Amino acid sequence: MSASGYCAVCRKIFIAVVFFCLPGVCVAQRESLRDTIEYRPGIGAFIVPASFIGYGLVSLMGENVVRRLDHTTKNELQEDHPLFAAHADDYLQFAPAVAVYGLNAVGIKGQHSLLDATGLYLLSAAITGGSVLIVKSATHRERPNGAGFNSFPSGHTANAFAAAEFLRQEYRDISPWYGIAGYAVATATGTLRMYNNKHWFSDVVAGAGFGVISTKVAYFIYPKLKRWVSGKGAMNYNVVPSYQQHSFGLSFNGTF
């Protein structure tokens, strides 16, 4: 399957998950009186991922030291491993999120119920996917292997780091090693994207930034969305998945 074909399949699978799972989560939230843990990140929580995105944006500004490092890294990887072809990155990008469900299955509970965790992950994935698709379309950067003009940022890397931050958030009060393991897997995913000659180094760095910020934003707004959906807030909101012109997202309809 070609890269474009694979991306199309991934989008269809994700859309199906959002359409069928999110309404169920919203209905269940109406029946639950349990409050979701409030997450109030300071500006410092966004400095590192924002700097990753900034690094990537610099690479788009013509020939500079960042862009030259992109070409140098690509040339060295291709020279040392010209026949490298591994597709583990297609699956590793979801591994940290799967670990959350695995840990719950063996009795190691995270910060939230499995229902809330699912809602958080779906929201994070929607923010990640939407932001990445918009930026890919806007930047129109050619991939290092010439396979397309949707290189910046790396979607696989963004998904992996979004999932890693999801794992870290859920288990940060139990042990920091869960988050460290998740970020190690995410880093491996980004590295494989470069070894497979699918992305430049700056694509991967920026993708990491987008993924981490997306999950942090999801944890910040999810409690508010939950209160609106359950009728506890001052406004009533409906959260409706949408899919238009090959892009997916969430539509919010509210009344005062």
TrEMBL record:
Source domain of life: Bacteria
Domain Phosphatidic acid phosphatase type 2/haloperoxidase per the UniProt entry, residue ranges: 118-219
InterPro entries, sorted: PAP2/HPO (IPR000326), PAP2/HPO_sf (IPR036938)
Transmembrane segments: 44-62, 177-195, 201-222
Keyword set, alphabetical order: Membrane, Transmembrane, Transmembrane helix
SMART domains cross-referenced by the UniProt entry: acidPPc
Pfam families for this protein: PAP2 (PF01569)
Family annotation (PANTHER family): AT30094P (PTHR14969:SF13), SPHINGOSINE-1-PHOSPHATE PHOSPHOHYDROLASE (PTHR14969)
Name of the protein described by the UniProt record: Phosphatase PAP2 family protein
Organism: Pedobacter hiemivivus
Biological classification of the source: Bacteria, Pseudomonadati, Bacteroidota, Sphingobacteriia, Sphingobacteriales
